[in-house]
Structures are given as C-alpha cells and as structure tokens.
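Re: Re: token formats

Sure, here are both.
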Amino acid sequence: MLTQIAAFNPKNSFEAFKFESLMELAKSYPDDFDSTQLRDLGRELNIYIDNVKADERFANLNTISELAKLMVGTSKHLGFPLVYRLLELVLVKMCFSAIKIVKTILRNRIGDGFLNDCMYVSWNKNF
C-alpha cells in the first residue's frame, strides 16, 4: 500500500506518478469508490496529471499534504473530486500511521492535549 500511496508524491514534477498504482489504491477503498466511480477516477487521473504538470504552481511541491493544500487553494479539488477524495483517504491513512508511532503502549494513558501536541510535532518537522 505504501508503494501505491507514493504514486501520489508530487516531488520532481510528479515523477513517481503511476496511474495503475493509484487505481489499485482506490480499489482498496470499496466503500468510497464503486465500479462507476473507479471508471470515472481513471478518466480524471489522466486529465489531472496532465493538468498539474502543466501548472507551474504545482512544480515545486514536495509532500502529499502540500499537494492537497494547493489543490484546495487553486480549486482543483472541485475539478477533480474523485482524485481529491483519494488524496484525502491517503492523508487520513498517513495520519493514523503517525498516531500509531506517537501513541505507544507507554503513552496510552496520556491526555488528548498532550497527544495532539505530539502529533503536531510529528507532522511539522520544522517545529
């Protein structure tokens, strides 16, 4: 699944973009993508990658979260709703993976405030 998620990486002008990997990733979310939506996602992905590669605002992105923010900032999330839905699912998956790292057995008794602070530090490496 990590290989499939990496196919969304915007680094180096979407060098890692792999249509097949993203379609396989979408199939792992059957509650979010039915067969019709999968077909439509395939069409959207082809147009989407050409669109963002041609848009210089997307040229220097490094992370998937930066990609999601810029999609909303440029309203591309409205033009590519299925791609954005898949991107949101990827971000949620990444967030839960980070929670597993932060919330260890030793930290199971910590309060929500401290856990939120730990997650903030985990997501904002420059902090």
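Second one below.
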Amino acid sequence: MAAPHFTPAFFEFFEELARNNNREWFQRNKQRYESRVRDPTLAFIADLAPHLRKLSKYYVPDPRPSGGSMFRIYRNLRFSRDKTPYKTNAAAAIHHSDTRGWPSPAFYISLSTGEIFGGVGIWHPDADTLRKIRDAIVARPTAWRRALEDREFTRQLELMGESLSRPPKGYDPQHPLIEDLKRKDFVAGRDFTRKQACSPRFVESFAGACAAAAPFVRFLTEAVGLKW
C-alpha cells in the first residue's frame, strides 16, 4: 500500500507554527514546511487529478508549487487586523480550467490542527454570478432538486453558508424553492478526522466526496455558463 500523503509531522508543524507565528521561526523551519507540508500537499493534489478527471475534464488539479491549486502560506496583511504573517492551515482549490479562479465553482480542501474540511461550490459569489445561479434554479427546478437529493450527496455532504433573511428582489416569495433562492452561498462540505487524513487512502476518501458532489457542482458550473 502507498504511503500516506499526510503524517503526524504535518500537523506538528502547524502546532508549532501557531505558537511561533513570526518570520524568524518560519525561516529557520522553512525546509520542514517544504518537506512536511508543501510537498505532501502538492503530491496529494497531483494524485487527485485522475479521480477528478473521471468527473469532468475541466476541473484539473495543478500541483505546481507556485501558481497552482495550493494556496500560499503567506497571509495578506493589508486589510487584516491579525498581523501574524503565516496561515496555520494548508489548503487547495481546484477551479474550472476556463477560469482558474472565481467565479467558477471549486473543489476545496483545508487541513489544520483544528479542522480537516472538504468543500465544493461557490462561496460569496458576486451579484451577477448569484443571479445566474438563482435564475438557473428557477429555470431548472427538477435538476436542482435532483442534485440536492442525490443519495450520495446527502449521505456525505451538508449544505452550508449564508442566506438572506428575506426573498431576493425579483423572485417570487412564494416560489417552492425560495429557501434555496435566498442563499448567498452555494456550498456544501464535510469534515474528516485526522486519522482519515493520515490514511494512505485519504485521497480516495476525498475524491469520493467530490464524486458525491458532482451533480451539485455540475449544476452550478452550467448555471454560470461553463462547460461540465
């Protein structure tokens, strides 16, 4: 059996970083970051590729260390009250290849000492993207219900995110799917345990959640005018 991508050393690095979130400590431990965190995450992203290819040829994990699917560990401090320079998680998002970013739906994973989370969908879409999704729900209610009621989807994932307190302007307040039309985020996700993350089969477990979410992500992808 193949070795696991993530090991206790991965989480130990972030435990220590949380206590020493400064440039001096990170520079002394940068090689540890690269060998225990960055490289395993990039290998995970690369090994996820054949699994996502079975779902859609347009969602392509990119294992490059810079400019790929993995987020940088360096925090953007310009508009943040928290001035600690480094993120205490490793994360990656796989967007549609025609956009390689927002406002495409995405397959997302984040690993930290406190949470291991897998998610899909669109978080905080802009007004135009939000309108396209809501219009698609109105135009294709059966397809939307089918995606949400899919057996594997409901077994593995949970809808989450923010909603409006009132029906959005321009939509029938009595529409049978009004609660979905009130959504401001169209995302679903699930948590994994550290034991699962350190398993040699974690990439298969995460890929299974992605497969369960495929009808949901396909609906969103087509709603915003992209190919599935």
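The two ends are 33 Å apart (CA to CA). The CA atoms of residues 61 and 201 lie 18 Å apart.
- S.
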